[in-house]
Automatic annotation (TrEMBL):
GO molecular function: hexosaminidase activity
Name of this protein: HEXDC Hexosaminidase
Gene3D superfamilies referenced in this protein's UniProt entry, alphabetically: Glycosidases
Gene responsible for this protein: Hexdc_1
Stretch forming the signal peptide: none
InterPro entries: GH, HEXDC-like
Lineage: Eukaryota, Metazoa, Chordata, Craniata, Vertebrata
Length: 146
């Protein structure tokens, strides 16, 4: 692979939307990419639409945990290797499926995930900031928003 020149032309993206990432496995995968000559990698997460084809509401806690796990992977990765994170928001599972988790119901999840990434984690201060930004009185992380 290194002799092919491909590692100088592309940057791999590692996709995983699980709330319980295999952090050690991701760190090892990044190291494998580096040994193959790839100098940069991307991560891909989701703030909505990755938990079920019929999902109507967004469970913020699932997506927040996913982002916190990606932050853990990033903390165990050499700083010059991570190029960025693609924060995805899936609307359907395939072109024949119904829409799931429409954007309006997922805005709080997007805000929480972005703030967690920006602040390097989630805290009461981050929660209060999201509530203030969205004009909400009580952000619900572990239950479906009402």
């Amino acid at each position: 692979l290194p002799e092919s020149g491909v590692p100088q032309l592309v940057q791999p993206m590692i996709w995983d939307y699980a709330a319980d990432l295999d952090v050690e496995g991701k760190v090892q995968l990044i190291e494998k990419y580096r040994r193959c000559g790839f100098s940069k990698v991307w991560f891909a997460s989701a703030f909505k639409g990755a938990t079920g084809v019929n999902q109507s509401l967004t469970l913020i806690g699932h997506h927040l945990k996913n982002h916190l796990e990606w932050l853990e992977v990033a903390s165990r990765t050499p700083p010059d290797v991570l190029e960025g994170i693609a924060l995805t928001g899936w609307q359907r599972y395939d072109h024949f499926s119904v829409l799931c988790e429409l954007l309006p119901v997922a805005i709080p999840s997007l805000a929480v995930c972005l703030q967690a990434l920006k602040n390097g984690g989630y805290s009461e201060k981050v929660k209060e900031n999201v509530e203030k930004l969205l004009g909400m009185s009580n952000l619900e992380i572990d239950t479906y928003m009402r």
